[in-house]
Specification:
Layout: H1 3-7, E1 13-19, E2 24-32, E3 38-39, E4 42-45, H2 50-71, E5 76-83, H3 93-109, E6 114-115, H4 124-131, H5 151-168, E7 178-182, H6 186-197, E8 201-205, H7 213-217, E9 221-222, E10 235-238, H8 247-252, E11 257-258, H9 269-277, E12 281-282, H10 285-288, H11 291-300, H12 306-314, H13 316-330, H14 334-347
Parallel strand pairs: 3-5, 3-6, 4-5, 7-8, 7-10, 8-9, 10-11, 11-12
Antiparallel strand pairs: 1-2, 2-5
Helix pairs in contact: 2-14, 3-4, 5-6, 5-11, 5-13, 11-12, 13-14
The structure holds nicotinamide-adenine-dinucleotide (NAD) and 3-phenylpyruvic acid.
Length: 354
């Protein structure tokens, strides 16, 4: 996609900054503030081009708008990306601190139009650093008065999504099902434990072999990263990166359902069409992975306690059943159906103070 195409975006705001000293480029994209101040995490990664970073931030911000709306949370959608000059693990601590400080300055200038939080390659400790410069931060550590990591609750929500989707796809309970988890990180690792406790047979894959050590001890089947899309399973759970299902992958997958934590699992609309034609039930990611947003916004904006966060997270399965009903009634993909449900729920939602 050309830079012109990337900038011809229907979101509300794009902020970019490059810092020659650290080599980092910063992007903040606010997709919508219709339901409230925009929120979404900070992703740090290497990108082949600044256009690629902008495009990713825009798609991720759009997914946050849908996630907030379908979840009934009184916030809009945004996201930020820090395009790194080297892999995150190779960035020295002092340089990383400086990068975070610059990012926090950019966020602070928006004066609350955009609130950040943890995402890929940023955690609660990083949120604490951002919070030294700006107040517009979710997910600080508990010692600093924040809600901490959202990963545990995201995993709980994906687990609810998986149970509802398995049942709707005619697979019954998770007991005895083969579940292939791609990415055994903060969310995928916890999801693996929950699925194993429910009696599922686990197949797991990660590009970081250290993440696989406990899985080996646990008796999981290890799948090579490039064999994921050709390995048969009952449920495929992408919990690593987005865009893993393009048209070719959708045509190749041997599974009955797809339920994962990654944002923007489908590379394009066509992939969703192919899954539907092939009878593979896809749980839209912005519905299935909303447990993290319930945790962060629920705790830090709405003053929810653990029980209230859990009640909302447990309803992710019910929301998906509504999505599947719309998809069947309208003869459309589950992704299109979830967008309809998000619009309907947004129409009835009130921003905080509204
Ligand atoms: P993480 O960085 O802790 O884990 C990701 C894991 O995926 C890592 O172990 C990494 O080595 C692995 N990985 C990367 N590329 C891979 C590949 N091609 N094949 C197999 N494994 C690969 O991240 P996380 O917090 O567990 O989040 C996982 C996904 O869920 C991300 O896409 C994130 O945006 C999304 N998500 C997370 C949350 C949350 O609360 N943490 C909320 C919503 C969405
Ligand atoms: C996501 O759910 O993808 C996030 O980016 C996490 C998040 C959720 C709500 C506020 C800030 C960050």
């Amino acid at each position: 996609m050309s830079l012109d195409d990337v900038l011809r975006w229907d979101g509300e705001l794009t902020v970019t900054r490059h810092d020659p000293e650290t080599g980092a480029s910063f992007v903040i994209r606010v997709d919508s503030t219709r339901l409230g101040q925009a929120a979404g995490g900070t992703r740090a990664a290497q990108y082949p081009s600044l256009a690629g970073a902008l495009e990713d931030a825009g798609k991720l911000a759009g997914a946050m708008t849908l996630k907030m709306a379908v979840s009934g949370l009184p916030m809009g959608g945004g996201k930020s990306v820090i395009a790194l000059p080297a892999p995150r693990k190779d960035i020295a601590p002092e340089r990383w601190q400086r990068i975070l400080q610059l990012h926090a300055e950019n966020i602070d200038r928006l004066n609350g139009t955009y609130w950040t939080g943890p995402d890929v390659n940023t955690d609660s400790a990083d949120m604490d650093v951002l919070n030294e410069t700006t107040e517009f931060v979710f997910g600080r550590s508990a010692d600093r008065g924040g809600a901490g990591s959202s990963a545990v609750n995201t995993a709980l929500g994906v687990f609810e999504a998986m149970k509802a989707t398995a049942s709707h796809a005619g697979l019954g309970s998770l007991d005895g099902l083969s579940i292939l988890i791609q990415g055994l990180g903060a969310v995928g690792g916890r999801l693996a434990t929950l699925a194993a406790e429910a009696g599922a047979r686990l197949l797991v894959s990660d590009t970081d072999f250290q993440r696989l050590s406990w899985a080996r001890e646990f008796g999981c089947t290890i799948v090579e990263p490039d064999a994921v899309s050709t390995t048969p399973c009952d449920i495929f759970a992408p919990c690593a990166v987005g865009g893993v299902i393009d048209s070719a992958t959708a045509a190749r997958l041997t599974t009955s359902a797809i339920v994962g934590a990654a944002n923007n699992i489908l590379a394009d609309e066509r992939a969703g069409d192919i899954l539907r034609q092939r009878g593979i039930l896809y749980a839209p990611d912005f519905v299935a992975n909303a447990g993290g947003a319930f945790h962060l916004v629920g705790r830090e904006v709405l003053g929810w306690d653990d029980d209230t966060v859990a009640q909302h997270t447990n309803r992710i399965g019910d929301t998906l059943i509504e999505v599947y009903a719309i998809s069947e009634a309208e003869d459309i993909t589950t992704d299109a159906a979830a967008r309809i449900l998000a619009r309907r729920r947004a129409a009835h939602s009130q921003p905080v103070g509204g």
